[in-house]
């Protein structure tokens, strides 16, 4: 797997080469280049956050791609080449990342910038040498054939962009590369396809109407971006509602402070280790945060909130009651379904694996029991590695019956890499 740092260094080296070449030889059609720089910078300023905390600047990305694929401009041939395309994309991106007041760009913004530069360089390498050498005229490619050629280049560019995004996402989160790539390819059906299509159409239309192609096609993309921004706001509100509900059991004294958050952190770490995608991880986190909501129906709190130490029928009753509460909150129905099953054993009475039990329910049950056992170990004076080892061994005694062996082994692989928030003495 390509290291995260290698991707960033490759982007930095490419940008340095592009700036050096532009400084030594000058810009081809500098006025056109500056217009593209300005629009890319504006697009960078109005970026949007997509599911999985991925930052994207749809307008900036589409316009940068359009410049990489720019052939004739209002009937006249362009001659900017690969490195100038990278220089323009880099200058626009850097200008858009400048903040007032000054501040250091976050990791997500730096990842997005590196990804854009390498993607633009890839697209320009596929197109510009063939166009500038006249090879496209000798084929010949005109009319629908030229559009088909650009479509092919755009499709390959989309695959390159998805691969880079998956590499960067894996480097930041530790998610499996194949799972991250699957998420990125799925995202192409949404804003990704709009970015690629807009960039390709701008480059095509610029041959007839010139720079007027920029506002003509950027406006619909801006409206689409506004829709994504509203959807992101809805997701944020849902997340805040779930966090508030999750704290209800803590405020009422039914569970220890921070228990729901620790269980959610552990569950998400296990989900990534087991290859769950971005949407599955989001639903898993929601269910893990609300897994104890059924305890509010109890007359007397469970000592220490440790439901994992209760008889199984009582655990199942609490889970079903919690599921009914969740079903009435407007949270995605998968969350209530996962909570309803989280106390069910992973094996049927005949010893066979219960394939109907959701993987999220299996994960949350292990994560919840792990935190309950860590709390119990802490009460016995075991902390740090000793407490983790004690909890893991107790879970292993019940694997294959109460707990899914795959999840238990995933927890063992996490080891010291995972430390849930809320254990000041390093118990987690």
TrEMBL record:
Pfam families: HD. It comes from the Bacteria. Gene3D superfamilies: Hypothetical protein af1432. The keyword Cytoplasm does not apply. Keywords: Membrane, Transmembrane, Transmembrane helix. PANTHER family: CYCLIC DI-GMP PHOSPHODIESTERASE TM_0186-RELATED, LIPOPROTEIN. This is Metal-dependent phosphohydrolase. The lineage of its organism: Bacteria, Bacillati, Actinomycetota, Actinomycetes, Kitasatosporales.
